[in-house]
Design a protein that fits this description.
The protein is α/β, with parallel strands linked by helices and 137 residues long. It is 31% helix and 32% strand.
Length: 137
Amino acid sequence: MTVRTNIIRHQSMMVSYDVVNGWVVAEVDGEVDAHTAPMIREAVINLLEEGHRHFVLDLGFVTFMDSMGLGAIVALTKCIRENEGSLRIASASGRVLRLFELSGMRKSYEIYPSAAEAAQSAPSPGSLAHWPHPSPG
């Protein structure tokens, strides 16, 4: 049985995580905007400081995301990359995917239909080496 740990509990958003197959699967529930995005960034940085390197950001329960939310994901990606980690996006709604497309960031991320699929294979260090450009292949 997997135990989820709450790392952020706010009136409009909650983030919890568990570790699956070497991945920290962080589930975001609620709104990701100018007010909540910095909290997510800080929580992931804290996890990096604890030694975690590989993340799946499960956006399946995100009810709203704006450009500040996307900016926070980009900032997280930079931090994770500096620590030779990995980041995969999972369960993004059509609206959230559209935000990635409109910003030109859609091809810069590995996006999976579910967190289970994203965490199925073990992480490989250095997978963000070519970010923000997609890896060849």
